[in-house]
Amino acid sequence: MRQLTRPLGLTTLVLVSVTLLLAVFGPVLWSARADSIDIDAMRQGMSAAHPFGTDYLGRDVLARTLVATRLSVLLALLATVLGAALGILLGTLPVVLGRRIGGLVVAFINLTVAFPGLLLAIFFGVVFGVGADGAVLALAVALTPNFARLTYTRAVAVAEADFVSAARLLGVPRAVVITRHVVPNIAEPLVVNFASAIGSALLSFAALSYLGFGVQPPSYDWGRLLNEGLPRIYTDPASALLPGFAIVFAGITFVLAGELTARLLTAEPPGHRAAPRETAAPGEPEPGGEHGVLRVVNLRVRFPAANPVCGASFTLHRGEILGLVGESGSGKSVTGAAIAGLVPHPGQVEAERLEFDGEPLDPARLGDRLAMVFQDPMSSLNPALRVGRQLAEVAEVHRNADRRSAMARAVDRLRAVRIRDPERRAAQYPHEFSGGMRQRAMIGMGLMGEPRLIIADEPTTALDVTVQRDILGLLREVRDTQGTAVLFVSHDIAVVRELASRVLVMYAGRIVEELPASALDTAAHPYTRALVASSPDLRTDRSLPLATIEGRAPDATEELPGCPFAPRCSYADERCHTELPAPRDLAGHRVSCWHPIGALEVRA
Amino acid sequence: MSELTVDGLTVRFGAHTAVDGVSLAVPAGSVLGLAGESGSGKSTIARAIVGMAPISSGSVRYDGTPLRTPDRRIQLVFQDPAAALDPRRSIGSSIAEGVRAKRTARRARVRELLELVHIDPARANLNPREFSGGQLQRVCLARALAAEPEFLIADEITSALDVSVQGAVLNVVREIQRETGIGILFISHNLAVLRYLADTMAVLRAGKLVEQAETETLLGAPEHEYTKQLIDAVPGQE
């Protein structure tokens, strides 16, 4: 509803009310004046008695324009309603009819959409006969294709949705499925389209009347008035300009109304607004004495409406694989993106320290010392370029290599990531690669330089387990042979446990625990414990229920004064809800919790 | 209650054979876990059983007679719970859709079903967007149970969920199975999840069945080379 109080909303509301008031009360108030013929005052210019002059029978143009509001709006509305009804009917036909006849209907709709609406309207205006009725019908028919196509495309999308299948499996009759599930879910775009269609119907109708196809004397709408006034445009411009202005005014009004409806309908459900989360706990000591490959102190990422990372600190050493584990929305991927300088606009990255290789991290100067591997290699490789070319480009850009040696290196790197027959593969396009091979190629691209750090964001999530194992092996091999550090971001604690030596556990934008991978079973933070216990592995006791965490993680827009996990934590007490725990060291774990499990009673 | 049998099931999409002569039997009250990697045809089998994919040859029988779909006795739970619930209807009304009863009795039954999946019945009037993924998946289970099915097909129902809520969904499936004695075809790429729920397991590869055995046997002493590979690839094993 906030949309209504914004400038666009307010303007639209005012314009719509003015138009509707005029349409309702205009004829009541000014009919007599508009219809009074005054032979003495024919074709007059502007005067006190007639601010916008008079027409060929001495009638007041202003009064006539105001009175014409009702007919103009009414006819446009009528045409739109008819057109929408016809369109919705036509658009649902293909869904109801079988594939063959339905296909013909779709082809017909697509054909008619190709014709300009006004042309159709004029054509049908001639067919249906001159006059208001004919013009309404003509315009309705002209509006039909648009509604039909919109209805059809939406209906097909909704009809294939899982919730429609589910209803069918429950034995809900077809007609009920359509009225209950399909129609409400296509209504939204239709309503938006309807509101703006009134605007264009109004303009089209004015055009028809102006051309003489529409409203006939003695009735009059704006198009008719424009038609009467225009021959005198050079002598008495006001009498032609006023109906013209009215048409433009009402047209804009309804187009704005369409826009506003769209915004109102697509607006997010009332959410919490940019409540900045408390940033890092006070007095947090800096971890790690010596500088590693990557040193991050109190990293924060802010967006206007959310703060996905609020105070992450960690150090990554040479040749180390560090796991960053968390659930969706925990901020783990944003952390990786922030280090690589890939946080999308309007996100802002701040940190007390962000050092790469001992110097302040400057994304522009990272070059090929940092490589990034994403979850979906298909979207990170350019589908239109050969794989070898894409790899070679890295060397050309960062190392000023010539085309030939760059390609030679690309082939060599593809071999290094154990792609068989690399010469042939380099000449292929990404779609000719399997998912696992694409991911290898991405890693190979990262290895075109001599990266000090690879940030791998869920690199195996989209892959099958057998392929996943190969990719994990490859990352380990790169670390062993080149001493590259790896920040491995994943939701899968089992994968992280297998690959990483140290693990960061992230929850609600904070690192809640840092611990050796081997110590995951004896984690100190209740969240880490629950996370480990809730994912079954091949040793889980089948006779017991799995551990669960009730509730849901706070999303990045929520602000909690205390520990973010407190609402779901069985150990939480008063303090946990009100005071944010600072990270402290506990027997090799670094944990942010007031009540760490199995705490060795080392008080911070 | 009786057995669901799939006999020589073949599903072709154009020139591509998604499922190739698969035969399975799930006895009443037991859980069959169907494992396989992406593209192996797991979901296609599920969809073919409920009539959402065309059967090229072979048969699906229930209680010895060929199945005519849609059949309320067999319900399917989908992978993505957010897509499987009408976003414009309250979860209560989505569940009520499957209940065949008079108005008041229907409302009581919805409450009962929500309690069964550990969702507060007071939240029945809320729309899906008010719930987490794990809660929505439990709502989907409740909806499937509303039809009082004798058989449930769960198609990767925990794959789209975070680990912390996956456990709650698996626990509910297990409880339901024990309390109602319903037969379940549980499909997953995750062997650990299948091991936790299934009595017997079948492994699918490129549309063909490679091995089928009791869960303990299949995981403990796999016979087929591919099954061994799958088990070895499960991460987090020492």
Topology:
The complex is a heterodimer of chains A (604) and B (238).
Chain A: H1 7-35, H2 61-96, H3 99-113, H4 117-128, H5 132-159, H6 162-169, H7 174-211, H8 222-229, H9 237-266, E1 294-303, E2 306-316, E3 321-325, H10 332-339, E4 348-350, E5 353-356, E6 359-360, E7 370-373, H11 377-380, H12 387-399, H13 403-416, H14 422-426, H15 435-446, E8 453-457, H16 465-482, E9 485-490, H17 493-499, E10 502-507, E11 510-516, H18 526-534, H19 574-578, E12 584-586, E13 589-591
Parallel strand pairs in A: 3-9, 3-10, 7-8, 8-9
Antiparallel strand pairs in A: 1-2, 1-4, 1-5, 5-6, 10-11, 11-13, 12-13
Chain B: E1 4-13, E2 16-26, E3 31-36, H1 42-49, E4 57-62, E5 65-66, E6 74-77, H2 91-96, H3 103-116, H4 133-146, E7 151-155, H5 163-180, E8 183-188, H6 191-197, E9 200-205, E10 208-214, H7 215-220, H8 225-233
Helix pairs in contact in B: 3-4, 4-5
Give an overview in words.
- The complex is a heterodimer of chains A (604) and B (238).
- Chain A is an alpha/beta fold and 604 residues long.
- Chain A contains 19 helices and 13 strands.
- In chain A, helix 2 (61-96) packs parallel to helix 5.
- In chain A, 48% of the residues are buried.
- In chain B, 53% of the residues are buried.
- In chain B, helix 3 (103-116) packs across helix 4 and helix 4 (133-146) packs parallel to helix 5.
- In chain B, strand 4 (57-62) and strand 5 (65-66) form a beta hairpin.
- The chains are: A alpha/beta (604), B alpha/beta (238).
- At the A-B interface, helix 6, helix 7, helix 16, helix 17 and helix 18 of A face strand 6, helix 4, helix 5, helix 6 and helix 8 of B.
Q: Which terms would index this structure?
A:
heterodimer; A: 604 residues; alpha/beta; 8-stranded mixed beta sheet; 5-stranded antiparallel beta sheet; 19 helices; elongated; B: 238 residues; 6-stranded mixed beta sheet; 4-stranded antiparallel beta sheet; 8 helices; 34% helix; 26% strand
